[in-house]
Specification:
The protein is α+β, with helices and mostly antiparallel strands. Among the domains are: 97 residues, no CATH class; 87 residues. Helix content is 59%, strand content 11%. It contains 21 helices and eight strands.
Length: 416
Amino acid sequence: MIRTDRWGTVRITHRGTITLNDADTDIVAMSPGAYFNVTESAWWVPDILRDWVGVRREIVMRGRADGTTARAYYSGERRQPFTPRGSDWLQELLPDLVRHGFGAEGRVARILKRDGVAGVAAEIPRLRSDYLRALYVREALRQTPLAARDVAAIVEAAQHIRSDYQQAQTLITVARAYKLDGVIAPAFFRASSAVQSDYEQRRVLLTAASAVTTRAGIDEMFRAAAQLQSDYDQAEFLMADAIRQLTTQAPEAFFHALSTIQSDYEQRRVLSSLLDRQLDEATVQAMMASATRLASDYDQAEFLVAAARRGLDQRAPEAFFEAVSTIQNDHEQRRVLMTIAARPNLPDPTLAAMLRSTSALGNGHERAELLVSVARQQRLDGPLRDVYIQAASDIRSEHDRTRALVELLRTERASR
């Protein structure tokens, strides 16, 4: 460590285990082979002459093999008694060194022994750098098992860390070491919301997903995710495996967070990622409701095509076809319905719902293309035939209307 002022330079070097007294004003023990050196020299002395002139004072301390400590104090080139000048200078230096991280491990241990976790929490705001604040938090967590209320106090103190990276690393350490229960979770997610970087906050929340233990905690986690400004980071968080496993535990909070994503593309990525999981009925309904809010016809269609390929139109037909009806572009709407029509032997309810949904297609060509495909792929008897004829009869273009009706007659003759 080097400190420079208008008068000169102070160089401090040390190695090994060095133990301070409770007041941080003296070194009371050093491990064998450890050393602590302080050299103060006038700044205007050329480097080539530093070994001979310009050295104003120096402290040299060594840890002996028998556990004792050798101390020496030099003024200029002459050794002098360590007390009082050496000890007074050391007493002046050490508190500032401690604030810069010197002996952090031992100091945290002393504070914990003397004042408990509250003492460490009170000390953290006084430290000189975010690195040290984070270091003290991690040392407090490492050195002794903490009760939930003590962890919460440490997490509250961590909000004094201004560096997004250091605060994120600290909170990640907490989430890896402790379960985020009803006591810790509120403080934890308040601290995570103070992280300004969306990337760093996402890292924290992803780690927290594996540690949160209560429904209220899960809700708080999703509320924190909803505050992310980056659509990409929100989507990446909601798409993570650990998060998707929580959708059925807190569906309202999950889908609220999803709704705060502004990008249709990123929303669609999240919805599509859910298709790979085992979905209950409520989740399927919520997915369809989310799809209706997509402003992009293309993204709506892409998601619904993928959903239809996994049979969600049969699991929640009313919600599915309601989502289809909100697509404004006839071509994109037909793409979704054609995906269903291409499946052989559709159940009658699905086939009827699909035929009725063709009424939303304003373009006669698009509607006729769909009906022709249905006639070729599906068997239309009884009420289904009537629904088909009604859908074809509503086409304004005589050419397209005739194409749809003729195709029905042709396939009926071919099947006899």
